[in-house]
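Crash report, auto-generated. Payload:
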Amino acid sequence: MRERKISESTIHRLSHYYRALNTLEKEHFETISSKELAKREKLTPAQVRKDLSFFGSFGTRGLGYPVKELKGRIAKILGIDRTWNVALIGVGNIGSALVSYKEFQRQGFNIKVLFDSDQRKIGSNHKGITVLDTDHLEEELQKNKIELVVLAVPASAAQNIVDHVVHCGIKAILNFAPIKLKVPDDVEIRTENMAMELEYLSFTLVNNKKGERKKT
Amino acid sequence: MRERKISESTIHRLSHYYRALNTLEKEHFETISSKELAKREKLTPAQVRKDLSFFGSFGTRGLGYPVKELKGRIAKILGIDRTWNVALIGVGNIGSALVSYKEFQRQGFNIKVLFDSDQRKIGSNHKGITVLDTDHLEEELQKNKIELVVLAVPASAAQNIVDHVVHCGIKAILNFAPIKLKVPDDVEIRTENMAMELEYLSFTLVNNKKGERKKT
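Recovered output after restart:
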């Protein structure tokens, strides 16, 4: 793999390509052209070729990319050719839904431990996983060799919790609290705000710019 | 406002700016420089200036952008200076969580009707809203003047449901089913896949490229 910068948008497109290739594999396709993949993803063939050139020289002119091999390479670069130990903190409305969210498991993200600070929830069982007390957060994260943390606590509690998470060496956090959290530079935090996708949609309704926008 | 193309990434950054400006307003800031806004959002000042130039000439050199006015302008362009009638289809794990998701309401997305096809759920009440039968989907969407649809049904049911949604003229759909749905060109559909954000994080863990990547 060549060392070069890869943008946030490219990483997201790789996730999309991975899913498309997975479907193609199930449909028994052996190869796919950049043109066909672009059509499925509503991108330009040039964009697809540029993204996939990240993997160095790949694909054969006229034949296209080998589906299975390309899927494997993307899985490796995204780190989903292996499994990850995930902790979910906060089993309220969103948290409970995420415990049952099959896409996590399917992509290798195994929720191993659950935490909550509510005494009524501690000790209860969600999908076979017992809810632990956030008071024991740091020791349990270490004991369970957690690598990724999903945060689904109220906004008011999030910064305090994230400080503890960072303190025990976690470098990757997915945050569902609608608040910007402070983490050191060497920690990657992503905030998932479902309202933002609705704002994207209301933008398109108000501006009626569909088809005119540039896909990035 | 000038007529020009606006990318998907720009729209998302506008959502982020809106939230930053909202916080700044609460902190009683009257103006903000592109440099300061960039710092808060971990972007370059040039990027911020480029994004905001979408609104034409704005801000005063040395003084920066007027917080309240800029927030208002962004709200208008995103279509969140008004409220929207939203229908939520599928009150399973994710759907139930979304009914209580405060960010929707806060940004003007009012869930007015709920649907499910499960007879045990139809007629039940979530946060004061009665679950209706998907058999009456089209008539109820029209009766309730629904403008946006949130889809939280199983992947196997999603295409059939979305066909009905499109049939009664809905132009904007937020899909939580982990499947690519087919809609006509004049309909905007966004698929929210929470695993993709975890893939972004596993990418950063595997490649250890933090700080080196280009923010788009």
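Post-recovery validation: The beta strands of chain B are 31-32, 65-66, 84-89, 109-116, 125-126, 129-133, 148-151, 172-175, 188-191.
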